[in-house]
Each structure stands twice: as structure tokens, then as C-alpha cells.
Amino acid sequence: MGPIPLILLAIIGQVFSVPLVCLKEGQCILGSTIAATGTKAKKFDAFYGIPYAKPPVGDLRFADPQPADKWNGTLDATLEKPMCIQKNVLVPSPTVQGEEDCLYLNVYRPRSANGWLFKKSLPVMIFIHYGGLFAGAITPYLLGPEYFMDTGSVIMVMMQYRLGSLGFLSTGDSASPGNYGFKDQVMAMRWVKDNIECFGGDPTSVTLFGQSAGAVSTHMHMLSPLSKGLFHRAIVQSGNAIAPYNFPVDDPLQQAREQAKVLDIPNASTLDSAKIVDELRKVDAKRLVESSDKMKFFSVDPIVLFRTAIEPPGPTAFMSENPIDIVKSGKFQHVPWMTGLVPNEGIVRAAAILTNETDLKELNSRFDELMPKLMQINATAEELATFWPKARDFYFNGESYVNDSNAQRFIDIFTDRAFYHPFYKTVEAYLSYADTTKNPLHLYKLSYKGNYSYSVVYTGSTRDFGVVHCDDLLYLFRTPAVFPKGLPPDSSDEKMKNIFVKTFTSFATSGKPKEWTNVPDCNKASMNPICHYQHFNNSPTGDILVNSSQQFDMAPVRLWDELREY
What we know:
The protein has helices spanning 6-16, 146-151, 164-168, 180-195, 213-223, 252-262, 273-280, 285-291, 323-329, 347-354, 357-365, 367-374, 381-396, 407-433, 455-459, 492-510, 554-561; strands at residues 20-22, 28-30, 32-35, 43-51, 74-76, 86-87, 96-97, 104-110, 122-128, 155-159, 201-211, 233-237, 337-341, 441-446, 533-538, 544-549. The chain is α/β, with parallel strands linked by helices. Strand 11 (201-211), helix 5 and strand 12 (233-237) form a beta-alpha-beta unit. The longest helix has 27 residues, at 407-433. The model is unreliable at 1-16 (pLDDT under 50).
């Protein structure tokens, strides 16, 4: 046998070599090629745990992220890094997990059916994970990229970012301006802009997307001057920046003092902001995370203790105005935008209360005291005395308790307050200012009910709560840690996955979900009561029904409008 031609050696090397990527400054990264277990079982390359910022420890705790140090030699990116330290109170029996040194990202790139890398640059999709700004991870056991990799059409990036007090504690001044988790995300997005070309990604075609807290984050980047130019399209799933759980804390310094008090820091009530931060930097990270349990007024509420801060204006400020004011003024980035919901979003909190006998009993014994707090209603005593009876009449027929007969209405009040009302107000505001011929808006609702549901995560039970918060993720990411069997081959679930992933990748490629041929354009004139949206549902024959709809219940919108928060 004669010598193997050089061209053949190059092809063999491209197909079978261990994936090695060298950045512009000569730093190299060793990844691994994964035999995908998605429906088409294509191989793809995974690069885990790439540092995009210095470890946020010591003096960098409660400080803006700093670019990562350069490494010597080749970085081994074949193993995952620990998640950011957290306690996920949304799941039964939570414990503190993760590490404070956690500012790493994962990059996934597809290969063709015969194992080749793609020669042309591919659009980039950056996914921001869920978890209420206090939990979440990017492990492929929870967010497997196989479905996107099977399409061979995009590069996928996911970053970890600081959570809870470590990510969002603010003193309201320069001692700890806050928004560190969002600033981490900005740092990761800058890393993508500078380096993704080396992985075969197109830095001029970046779609930012996220679900729940990731949706809040994505929307916040549309509002922040720090994020301008770092992405070109946005997908916001089941959440946004003006949702009540992201309302800025009224008195961040007082909250920082409260955090110090529950840690038994001496003289916490009189220390100045710099000293509070200094003392909090000395506390063990696990103890710091655990201590937030002592700051709750009922069960695990408020779920989101640490959140968006309004910072002193300056070049490093991520957010120096209330997000509501930015949305209302139109002074946000107008980019092609897709946003949507599922029917029972409120399950994310309501289900755990409904299935916990102790919590439900306490709620019913203090119903009129606790419910306005759970709804995060910021109102004077006089305003509340007028509004709450109206809300109680609307949802509970004037009754001050929850039981099996009105459980769905208990879910509905969470759904409307935290998701549907802010969704409507952001759509309304966008259409008031954006030129939708240049920067179109696409709406969807995923009502399709498949074989699995995330309600099992919130309750630990198999009780049927319909289509709930996070169920859209079933058709975007593999989740072997929760649903190990995966979507049944040749099932309606797999068809729904194919439709939904194509919706996202086509939007990331062109700014338009191309298969939405039957959905009229969304603009100010077509908002009646809302724009037409793509509705994914079950057909009577058990298949998938995809059609255009304008159905939207305006009665809850009118009710919550009475608070005049927006």
C-alpha cells in the first residue's frame, strides 16, 4: 500500500482527532467529542469549564467580575466544573451545593453526519439558565445540548453566574453596587464575542435566550447599556425583567444589614455599608448561602430574596434605573425578539404549597396577611385595603382559603401576577417604540402536554398539574438527571421537540421563525387584545396542533393594572 495522500490525512484528522481549539492569543483548549444520544445520534464537540472570569472569592466576593487569568499550556476542558454555590428551595429537601469558584462556561459545536466540522461559521446561541437567580446549573445532565447539536446549525454556549446573595446582594452604594450575576453574564458574552470564532461560531450573529430567571436575565440585557452590541436577537421564555419577583429591593442597605444580622455579625444594625461588606466577605460561603433561610417570612418565601439592584450611575453600572421605567420609556435595545409562555406558569410556586399540608394549613390560617406578600404587592395599607378584596373576589369568590375546589385559581393568581401580566405589559411597551419591520416581535404559547412534566420536580409527586413552568424545556434540552428515559422515539413528544427546536434555530439564523407562515405580523395595529401568536397544542386525535391564536384573558390584566405599578 502506497503513502496516504496529505488531503486524506487532513480529512481523517478533522473527523477523528481530539477536538483542540486555540484562541487568538495562543491559548489552547482540549475538548471531547460526544456520541450524541439525541434522535439523530450525531457527534458533537463539548468544551466544559472554560474560565471567563477570575474566581469571585476573597476581595472579589461582592465585586464586579474580572477577566480570567491566562493559562499556560493546554486547558483540559473535558470535565465539568462544579455549579455556583446555591440552595435550590424550589425542590423538596434542598441542601447547599456547589462552589464559590464557578465562573466557567461550556461551548458545544456540532459535527456533520459523517463527523466533519462545518467549514462555514455558524450562528451562536447563548443560553442563560433558570433558577430564580438563586439556583441552577449548566450541566448536560439538566441542559443537554443534543437536540440543538443534531440540527448542525448553531454553536451553543452556556455560562454559570453568581447566585443568591453572592450574585445580587447590594448596599445601594459603591461598597456593593450589586447585579454581579448579570455582570458575570456580560463578561461571558464579551468572551463569546472575542473567542467564539475560534470554535466556528459567527460573533456577528449571536442570539441570547433564557427561561425563567434566564428570561429575566435575557430581558435585562435588552435594557442594560453594558450589554449593547454583545447580542443581536433575543428569546425570552416564561419570565421578564419587570416581573414582581425582580422588582428592585426597596432598601438594599437594610437587606444587607438583615443578611449580616442572621449571620450574627456584631453591631450589624449600626455598621456602615463598607464594613458590612467587609464582614460578609469573611463568612464561609456555605454558611452565607444557608443563612438566607432565616430571612423568609413564610416557608421559602420570598423565593427571590436578592435580585436586581438600581446602581449609582457610572460606566460600570449594569442597571441604574428601575427596569419598569426603562421598559415604559422605550430606552432599551430593539432587536428581533421572540417571547412566550406556558399555561400554568404559577405552578413553580403554587404546586409546592398545594402539596405540602403544613404550608397549606399555615397559609389558610393567615390567608389575607400572607397572600398580598406572596403576590409581592407594593402598596400602602390604604391601597391594599381597596385592592386585595377585589383580587380575592376575582380569584377566590371572596373566600380566604385554598382547597381542592379552588386550587386552580390559586395557581392562576401566581400565573397572572408573576407571568401573564408582565408579559402583556412588555409586549405592549415594545410595540409602542420598536420598528417591527426592522426588529420584529414573535409571540408563542406552548400548551402541548406530553409524557413528562417538571411538576414532579416542584412537588416530588406525579399529580397532574397540566403544562407547567419549565415544560417548554422538555422540547429543547435533554434532561437525563430528571427524565432519564428521554422522549420516546417516533412519539408526538419527539415531533414537538423537532418543531420547537426548529423554531429556535431558525430564529437564531434569520431573526424569524420561518415555519410560522400562518402567524400575521405583530405590530401596534394588530394588538387586539394581543398580537397573533403561534400556539402549540394537542390535537383531538392525539397529535400536535399548531395554529395562530389571539386569545388572551384580559380580565386579570385589568385587575393587576389597578396597582399602577407599570
